[in-house]
DNA sequence: TTTAAAAAACTGGTTAACCAGCTATAATCT
DNA sequence: AGATTATAGCTGGTTAACCAGTTTTTTAAA
């Protein structure tokens, strides 16, 4: 297990070095937005790494919108300037893995906005979707069973109704890590689940009524326990 | 160009189908958290697609925390239950590409929180970093030059000082798309840049003073134009 | 029968050769 | 010379064979 972590961190290190070198290259060659990067083969030879390593690094930079690969043509510098490119690459290399506290902090921020948007924008289909997630949660939790999964699906259903695909994506990104941490630290015990049923219902009703402020307030109530937990950890 | 989009959407479609099939498989075989998925080779044969397609689909599910690949061992179902797995896969398949409005909406939300956190948590090094970004912006903008890049680097420097790696990552993710859209729609003209210098300075001073509420207020002032633009588009 | 050692099979990752399509150069024609 | 076509080489993507570990099965010993 320890070995695996080592290997992984090594690969991460290699990838970051390649990303840094690509950044240097863009500066060195004065590549402007739209210009073509050297081919993957040339880069792998120049940097003395495998082509798949180069591809992974390019993939990551493509994820962050700095490069754009076009099949049978080349990899191109995105339509942002050299200055922004340098700054962003430095930031990407500096990125740390998210800790639990930052995840919960972010989740609360996202959801308090999401629930307001959902109250404003939810369609009839969204309401049906949220309701069925609510029912599934109630059925599990009322029996005293663990309902962490149903809980989060309810919240994801609301995110889906927010009409904001960026927020929805971010919620999807942080949800699994939150689930695993909840299980690890036993954040949600059974007593919490029972009281949460009514809180969920209140949130749903506010969304259904189209009242964004009420929805936010009800969600805040629901997050109260989580709030305390997050800032006491 | 049109062809390229078609090809890309085809690949996306194939990947989504594989993701859906992996989801079905997990249900069919009743795979619990920690269980091993069939090997990439078997999946590619079973689904009648290439192994690299399977790998990409697994990569995406790994990004969203649903699977975990371990070298020379196998791909494992993450430590979330079957119910959450099904819900999340459905959500992932339903995800849309972010539109400009959702990007700006999200950015404003993130930054108003980030600036408060930065005021509370910034180190001396953070302050130096933010200051140098501020100076670079001022130098460009005061000459009437385009300073979109320096503007966003200033904001990213604040995100870096927030002490929340999740928020920092999200800012990095949306920034390049915002830059390109700004350029496309000419959101930031020169007159805006000039007045923004003082607004940036005010934000910086509030962070330096460690006053979260003031920092948020000053950022809100800075976002006023953006606010209007976003909701009039 | 139980345990330990050895070997065979299998795993995700890597590599190098190959592919279809794009691009720039060269050759041809007007 | 200028425009057009043909050609050669280069591109990211795909494929199949290979690699170094892991995991399971088999074998041998107690």
Structural summary, described in words:
With 233 residues, chain A is mostly helical. The first copy, chain A, folds into 2 domains: 85 residues, Winged helix-like DNA-binding domain superfamily/Winged helix DNA-binding domain (Arc Repressor Mutant, subunit A, Orthogonal Bundle); 131 residues, Up-down Bundle (Four Helix Bundle (Hemerythrin (Met), subunit A)), CATH 1.20.120. Chain A has 10 helices and 2 strands, in the order αααββααααααα. In chain A, strands 1-2 form a two-stranded antiparallel ribbon. Chains A and B meet through helix 4, helix 5, helix 7 and helix 8 of A and helix 4, helix 5, helix 7 and helix 8 of B. Chain B binds a DNA duplex (30 and 30 nucleotides) through helix 3.
What is the helical fraction of chain A, as a range of percent? over 70%
**Oligomeric state of this protein:** homodimer
- How many E strands of chain A? 2
Coarse morphology of chain A: elongated
Q: Which structural class do you get from the secondary structure elements of chain A?
A: mainly alpha
What is the end-to-end distance of chain A?
27 Å
Largest interface by residue count? A-B, 57 and 57 residues
Number of helices of chain A: 10
The CATH homologous superfamily of the largest domain in chain A corresponds to: GntR ligand-binding domain-like
Low-confidence region ranges of chain A: 1-8
- Using the 3D structure, state the CATH architecture of the largest domain in chain A: Up-down Bundle
The average pLDDT score of chain A comes to 89
**Which sequence of SSEs, written as H and E, runs from N to C of chain A?**
HHHEEHHHHHHH
**Sheet having the most strands of chain A:** 2 strands, antiparallel
Radius of gyration of chain A: 23 Å
Which CATH C-level class of the largest domain in chain A is it? Mainly Alpha
Assess the beta-strand content of chain A as a share of residues: under 5%
Looking across the biggest beta sheet of chain A, what order are the strands in?
1-2
Total count of domains of chain A: 2
């Amino acid at each position: 297990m320890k070995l695996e972590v080592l290997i992984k961190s090594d690969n991460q290190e290699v990838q970051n070095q390649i990303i840094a070198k690509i950044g240097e290259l863009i500066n060195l060659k004065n590549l402007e937005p739209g210009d073509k990067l050297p081919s993957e083969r040339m880069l792998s030879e120049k940097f003395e790494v495998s082509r798949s390593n180069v591809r992974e690094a390019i993939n990551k930079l493509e994820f962050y919108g700095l490069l754009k690969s076009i099949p049978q043509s080349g990899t191109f510098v995105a339509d942002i300037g050299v200055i922004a490119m340098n700054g962003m690459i430095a930031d990407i290399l500096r990125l740390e893995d998210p800790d639990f506290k930052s995840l919960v902090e972010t989740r609360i921020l996202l959801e308090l906005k999401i629930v307001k948007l959902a109250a404003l924008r939810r369609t009839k289909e969204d309401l049906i979707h949220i309701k069925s997630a609510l029912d599934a949660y109630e059925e599990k939790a009322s029996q005293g069973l663990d309902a962490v999964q149903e809980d989060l699906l309810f919240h994801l259903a609301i995110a889906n109704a927010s009409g904001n695909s960026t927020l929805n994506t971010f919620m999807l990104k942080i949800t699994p890590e939150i689930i695993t941490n909840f299980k690890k630290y036993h954040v949600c015990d059974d007593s919490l689940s029972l009281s949460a049923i009514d809180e969920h219902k209140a949130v749903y009703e506010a969304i259904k009524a189209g009242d964004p402020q009420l929805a936010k307030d009800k969600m805040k109530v629901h997050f109260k326990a989580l709030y305390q937990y997050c800032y006491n950890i």
